[in-house]
């Protein structure tokens, strides 16, 4: 099975965005924001990258912030789905935590350009949109904390600081988007496997 | 002892930058780059923040890239010094690794605005400057890898993938700059202590 086929239905990124012109603009916005930053990008730049006129852009998106919000919302929805799916699965806490880390790392590696925009441009969202995204992040955090807490309760895990360890686990996975290089020596799945092992060590009983 | 006093001689950030006007411009550049991104910031913005004219800025810095390079160089020199100092200390590998993580985390927490610029704007450096910074990062990586390798050799640590684990340890610490909030519930030292414990678990013998 190819890496692309293992990405939980992400074979066609942004497939939820229709019509095709709106999707093309979104992809152009992700690339422009990742390359130059949100504030240095104009709607004219984005339209140009998509081979469209500024007027055509305004049919689909009223403002640059609307594009960022759409990107951030889709990215955070995907992240939350991956983590809640892993948390809700059958299996031991260790199996579920390993699955959550593997899926979360794989997303941040394969979609590192999108993930950088999603993770680094939160401040550029409007207050209302930022509040909505923060709520999704809170739920992602809760999904991982739930797995770790259950592992502590059953005695599988030994974790003195559950909120701090949850934060560290998510942070470790998120930072993959910063350093991951598709031309590098490790595939997204290899990084996911390594990280799942490291995270299980972080929460495991001490020798 | 206050947190500021515990920062390994960083009581006066940018004290290596003289004269005072050059330092003021550098501080203004860090703030502007962190807030709006490198590409969205003009030298005029930076001069304005420092209460100076664009002409006065050019006396000290020929280009915006020169400011970014100076910030990046000072930040990377500091990071390397912290890690090599920890690696060169007496003590067990566990003690030295814990010290390295504590110091590296503390820097990324206390100086999170600077650290974000240092970590996220590498692509904006000129090729020559980027090569110089990449070499400093290679040395930082080598300092941590050395501690982990020594711990493996003495049997203190059990680490199947030393380069991958080194990468993960540094990545975990670096991402503190993204999420750390000075108004949050954890101090830089508390995060450092938590992370040192988590990293020792990552490299420790399995039960």
Automatic annotation (TrEMBL), chains A, B:
<dbReference type="Pfam" id="PF00440">
    <property type="entry name" value="TetR_N"/>
</dbReference>
<dbReference type="InterPro" id="IPR050109">
    <property type="entry name" value="HTH-type_TetR-like_transc_reg"/>
</dbReference>
<dbReference type="Pfam" id="PF17932">
    <property type="entry name" value="TetR_C_24"/>
</dbReference>
<dbReference type="InterPro" id="IPR009057">
    <property type="entry name" value="Homeodomain-like_sf"/>
</dbReference>
<feature type="domain" description="HTH tetR-type">
    <location>
        <begin position="19"/>
        <end position="79"/>
    </location>
</feature>
<dbReference type="InterPro" id="IPR001647">
    <property type="entry name" value="HTH_TetR"/>
</dbReference>
<feature type="DNA-binding region" description="H-T-H motif">
    <location>
        <begin position="42"/>
        <end position="61"/>
    </location>
</feature>
<keyword id="KW-0238">DNA-binding</keyword>
<dbReference type="InterPro" id="IPR041490">
    <property type="entry name" value="KstR2_TetR_C"/>
</dbReference>
<dbReference type="InterPro" id="IPR036271">
    <property type="entry name" value="Tet_transcr_reg_TetR-rel_C_sf"/>
</dbReference>
<protein>
    <submittedName>
        <fullName>AcrR family transcriptional regulator</fullName>
    </submittedName>
</protein>
């Amino acid at each position: 099975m190819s890496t692309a086929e293992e990405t939980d239905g992400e074979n066609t990124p942004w497939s939820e965005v229709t019509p095709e012109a709106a999707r093309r603009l979104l992809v152009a916005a992700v690339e422009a924001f990742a390359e130059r930053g949100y504030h240095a990008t104009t709607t004219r730049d984005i339209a140009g990258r998509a081979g469209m006129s500024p007027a055509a852009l305004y049919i689909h998106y009223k403002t640059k912030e609307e594009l960022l919000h759409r990107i951030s919302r889709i990215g955070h929805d995907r992240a939350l789905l991956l983590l809640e799916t892993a948390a809700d699965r059958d299996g031991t806490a260790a199996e579920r935590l390993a699955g959550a880390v593997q899926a979360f790392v794989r997303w941040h590696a394969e979609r590192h350009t999108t993930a950088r925009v999603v993770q680094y441009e939160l401040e550029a969202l409007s207050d209302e949109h930022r509040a909505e995204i923060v709520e999704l992040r809170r739920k992602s955090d809760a999904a991982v904390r739930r797995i770790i807490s259950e592992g502590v309760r059953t005695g599988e895990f030994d974790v003195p600081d559950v909120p701090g360890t949850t934060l560290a686990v998510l942070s470790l996975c998120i930072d993959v988007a910063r350093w991951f290089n598709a031309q590098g020596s490790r595939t997204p799945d290899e990084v996911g496997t390594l990280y799942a092992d490291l995270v299980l060590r972080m929460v495991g009983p001490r020798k």
